[in-house]
UniProtKB/TrEMBL annotation:
Record keywords: Heme, Iron, Metal-binding
Lineage: superkingdom: Eukaryota
Name of protein: Cytochrome b5
GO cellular component terms, semicolon-separated: membrane
Heme found in the keyword field: yes
Organism of derivation: Lentithecium fluviatile CBS 122367
Annotated GO MF terms: heme binding; metal ion binding
Family according to the record: Belongs to the cytochrome b5 family.
Domain Cytochrome b5 heme-binding: 2-79
Pfam name, any one: Cyt-b5
Amino acid sequence: MSDTFTTKQVAEHKDVEKGLYIIIDGGVYKMDSFVDEHPGGAKILKRVGGKDASKQFWKYHNESVLKKYAPKLKIGTVKEEAKL
């Protein structure tokens, strides 16, 4: 869980076949194994694959959801990139 990813690397995993990574508050989560379990449906997760889903996540979930699933789904963090 100590891996660091660039946003470009996360974007490369935009679908289930490639791992379906999403970003929530700087954390990178691998969602491919969770897609079918997601109470809101697979379609929602697939729509945010490879992207920062923080805004969408916090709109429908609270911190307890993140704490519950992070140990199983979090694979690393997003590397800070220089802003030019």
